[in-house]
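Exercise: predict the fold of this chain.
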Amino acid sequence: MRPFTRVALVGGVLGLIAVVLSPATAYAHGFGERYDLPVPLWLYVTGAGAAVALSFVVIGVFIRGDGGHRQYPRFNLLRWRIFRLLSHPVALLLLRLASVGLFLLVVIGGLVGEQEPTDNLAPVLVWILWWVGLAYVSALVGNVWAIINPWKIIYGWVEWVFSTATGAKELSLGYQYPRKLGVWPALVLFWAFAWIELVYVDSAIPAHLARFVINYSIITWAGMLIYGKDPWLRHGEAFTLVFGFLSKFAPTEVRSLDESTCRECPLDCRDEDDGCIDCGRCFRRAPHEQREFNLRPFAAVLLRNEVVSTSTAALVVLLLSTVTYDGLTATPLWVSIHDSLSRAFAGSSEVVGTLGLLVFPLLFGLVYMATVWFMARLVDRPEALFKLARTFVYSLIPIALAYHLAHFLSFLLIQGQLAVPLASDPLGMGWDIFGTVDYQTNLRVIGARTTWLLAVAAIVAGHIISVFLAHAIALRTFKDRRIALRSQLPMLALMVGYTMVSLWILAQPITEAG
């Protein structure tokens, strides 16, 4: 049986398991209305955990060999005229103009527009449509951010003018990016972004938001100027990396078949199997006939045999821990912890939140490292602890996506409707450009029961996919099937435990600290 045929069969069996064991109703966390559990919460949580555990058995029986990681089906969409038209320079220019226009709207509108968040388009664009919505698009469609990144576009335009005027190849001071820095700059910047989102109490105030965007722009363009556009995008631009992680789950990819271009690429884009996937620099420089825009199976590229740095692994863990921390901070448990710490240390809400955002990712990382430590002991390779941690970290990405989907879907569908009236009056000036200013938000666009069902399905499916990915990576890493199965027992415990914790968080009523 071919690898992806086996995967499809396993998927069908696991889907049946999830349907049988998934709960029907819940007390909905963040769903906008009360939805009471008809049976004890523990039954739902243990049922979902059992589904993930049972998936390990099914995967262990059906998935053999290399798990199908080396080759997967591809279909080049550029064979169709419609996709060639969509990739035409004029179409891309219009898309980039729209992206830069929205970027300027956030900055200018935030500074001069109405400062009530619900009367200004800037907070809706940043926190709902961009951060939440684009994350879904990245994971379920493809790496759109690589095309619409306004910092990349604006710098590219300035660089083109500079090159035209001076004849220089690029606008850069020419410093070599230090390899030892890895993606630590992007990790620090993403942590700062998470602090603004989760801790800073005035993060929705348009003027504050505009200033944050300006400061991030200065850092980003300075990094591009010092080290070059592509090196900084690959190592220092936090959202290029984060959306890039999520897009590894997506069913599309760009691919360069020009070996000479990839061989000369300074970004080390080729994997251990000598493949060049999703490297925009190589794709742009390859001849047209050597370019592919492929349709591929979901999550296939997460099995790519590539070298993962310690800093990249740390950023993946930070991404997963921050979205979990976001959910945790709205539970009664966190409110109790928050209030106790505030009284004990006489700290403000921001001080306690900052402490939590520092400690929680560290605890999360320690749990992951403890899991890998047990794995290393079971396969008698304790010296390979950090290498194994880097090898298996991409198997966590579907969990981050699943929790993002479960936690933010109703928020996107309900609060995202604010963009309709604000499109006609983006600055709160009393305009009605498109005649939509009187639009009323439809709170019934998605109900609590539907949201809960989707949340459970996403959490369970995300963890099952992660179990499969970890198993396939283990087969590639350890070669021997028995050793690979034994190595995955600690990862299975981690997946089951995280499934249960995630569903417990989602089932809690929203409670606000302070």
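Check your answer against the key: Residues 9 and 62 are 9 Å apart (CA to CA).
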